[in-house]
Amino acid sequence: MGGAQTVKAKPFLAFLLICLSLTGCSLSAHPDTPPQKEKATVHHPLHIQESKIKPRPIRYGPFLYELRSYPLASPLQDGLMPHRLVIPAIKLDSLVEPVGVLPNGQMDVPKAFDRVGILSPWTKPGMAGNAVIAGHFDHYTGPAVFYKLRKLKHGDQIMVHDAQGKSLTFRVKKIESYPAAEAPIDSIFGPSSHAQLNLITCSGRFNRKTQEHANRLVVFSELSY
Fold this sequence. Notes:
By secondary structure, the protein is mostly beta strands. It has one helix at about 185-190; strands spanning about 5-10, 15-20, 65, 70-75, 85, 90-100, 115-120, 130-135, 140, 140-145, 155-160, 165-180, 195-205, 210-225.
């Protein structure tokens, strides 16, 4: 891939209020009905019926995260915009779509429960820094795309492919679960001298009153050379 080049990041979104939104990651049409047991391996295409309920943001914060202009040692200066996310260990193959930041500062996610969303504009996979992909854990009919994320182990491969067929492989470094209001935003979204990809979903006890899971599961991975 060649030697790393030092480039200067463009300052953007000088102040970003990030309240991570896993929209609908814990929706339930019938709060008193226990979630269905897992019936099948999650893979693409996923034939999961979409909820007719409008997804609702699940909050992380708020956290005020200030981005400054700083030098980056970027393995791939332009990075890669993923079209597909493939995780062999859990037989996941999902389409990826770019998602932005909502007016209230929350990270959006796809409306489809079988797709994942990459925060954009932001760090792309392959660039020095933290690229972030979020997906649903479950919804009112059962498991969603990131339901098996918690089963990943250190060293497992995470692959992203762009629309032209170019791909990058990351390897899992660690998996952490945090209380929703205490997730380390700087570690997940902040600057880094390494090319990292972080996957986020819900975890923990489900609160039927608030319709939210108590924790957020984060899979930290780093580019494999």
